[in-house]
Amino acid sequence: MPFTIAIDGPAASGKGTIARALAQRFGFLHLDTGLLYRAVGAMGGDPVAAARALTPEDLLRPGLRSAEAGQAASRVAAIPEVRAVLVDFQRRFAVQEPGAVLDGRDIGTVICPGAQLKLYVVARDETRAARRAAELGVDPTEMLAQLRERDARDADRATAPLRAAPDAVVLDTTALTIDEAVARAVALVEDRLSAQPAP
Ligand SMILES: Nc1ncnc2c1ncn2[C@@H]1O[C@H](COP(=O)(O)OP(=O)(O)O)[C@@H](O)[C@H]1O
Ligand SMILES: Nc1ccn([C@@H]2O[C@H](COP(=O)(O)OP(=O)(O)O)[C@@H](O)[C@H]2O)c(=O)n1
């Protein structure tokens, strides 16, 4: 049975960094589900039609990592029909052998409620804003306001709001280096893998 890791949490908490490192370490596939919503937001026009028409090439568009693309993503992500269109692709991705890591907002709660490991990655607001501002070369104060606005929209929407699944392990990266955060996540995966029944 494939091993699925669900990683959720607010903006710039370190989800993607941990997801990529776990995928590399364990030879699993990785899907950054935020890119799906960023691409739909960037396509313009009717968001539901854009979600239906989404191709792998759309995920390579330049500019998808920008703060503006993040804001546009969180607006289209609040539309239930947009989310519904993207569910099957994510669920199929999640069950590939030997395992898959998906990071987003609703992976542990909606997309993969049966995931073998669920992480909910958090960090202090100011820390997240400083890290993302450094990454994009923008002003940290403006970034803080943008992240808070986006987190509030993601947490307050009716469909698949940003939430920790009841069985998620919370990982606070505020005081951790990337290596420390990854080491904690690796230890959790090893623990769960060793508890798996033999094939
Ligand atoms: N533990 C950490 N310590 C310092 N910087 C980090 C840490 N984790 C992530 N970062 C940096 O913070 C930024 C946001 O991390 P990222 O993994 O993209 O977050 P998310 O996927 O949750 O949006 C990136 O520039 C990343 O390199
Ligand atoms: N599974 C997901 C992933 C992202 N999203 C939306 O897409 C936006 C961008 O997600 P992201 O993961 O790329 O954002 P960052 O955490 O990297 O800043 C989020 O603010 C959410 O509105 C979502 O609704 N569900």
UniProtKB/TrEMBL annotation:
Binding-site positions, ATP: G9, P10, A11, A12, S13, G14, K15, G16, T17
Domain Cytidylate kinase: 5-40, 62-190
UniProt-recorded Gene Ontology molecular function terms: ATP binding; CMP kinase activity; dCMP kinase activity
Catalytic reaction equation(s): CMP + ATP = CDP + ADP; dCMP + ATP = dCDP + ADP
Alphabetical GO biological process terms: pyrimidine nucleotide metabolic process
Localisation: Cytoplasm
Any one annotated GO CC term: cytoplasm
Keywords: ATP-binding, Cytoplasm, Kinase, Nucleotide-binding, Transferase
InterPro entries in alphabetical order: Cytidylate_kin, Cytidylate_kinase_dom, P-loop_NTPase
Catalytic activity, EC: 2.7.4.25
Top-level enzyme category: transferase
Family, similarity comment: Belongs to the cytidylate kinase family. Type 1 subfamily.
Protein name (database record): Cytidylate kinase
Species the sequence originates in: Paracoccus salipaludis
